[in-house]
Amino acid sequence: MQQKGSAESRSQDHLAYWVGSLASAIGKGAGEQLASTGVTPCQWAILEAAFFGNANTLTALARIIPVDAAAISRQLDKLQKSGLVRRRRLRSDRRTVRIELTDAGLDLVPKIETCIRSNNARFLAGVSAREQAVFIEIIKKMLKNADYAVELESQE
To answer: What is the pTM for the complete model shown?
Structure first.
């Protein structure tokens, strides 16, 4: 039975609907672009972080990739089995495991980056650089409002 009130509401009236839809569409598009490489969007995030030196441990990856550490660990297992990453314990601290790209991983990242750029360009067509910057600032502000911005501060 449908309830009616003075202000009817539909899911499409809520910000979460649109943000979720956008995130889902971008992720699906990235998955389609990456399908031929055998790498998933989450695996790409790991490879990219390791390639550019943004994170080289599981803990560091979990700080910058919006996925829980257990999921990142499972993706690392898959990347290791496919020969794209290796894990090495530090001699100075045997508890710390460093994530490194193999030669195959180093060769693959620039090729995959082309796929990701293509996907991003598709979604950003007609959106000016200024609009993109404003959108990112709004998202950061919203995350900060929700006390979810600790990881973002180090990236600014």
So the answer is: 0.79
